[in-house]
Amino acid sequence: MHDLMKGKRGLVMGVANDHSIAWGIAKSLAGQGAELAFTYQGEAMAKRVRPLAESLGAKVMMPCDVEDLASVDALFDALRKEWGSLDFVVHAVAFSDKSELKGRYADTTRDNFSRTMLISCFSFTEIAKRAAELMTNGGSLITLTYGGATRVMPNYNVMGVAKAALEASVRYLAADFGPQGIRVNAISAGPVRTLAGAGIADARLMFNYQKRHAPLRRTVSLEEVGGSALYLLSELSGGVTGEVHFVDSGYNIMSMPHPDVLKT
Ligand code: NAD
Question: What whole-number percentage of the chain has pLDDT above 90?
Answer without folding.
Answer: 95
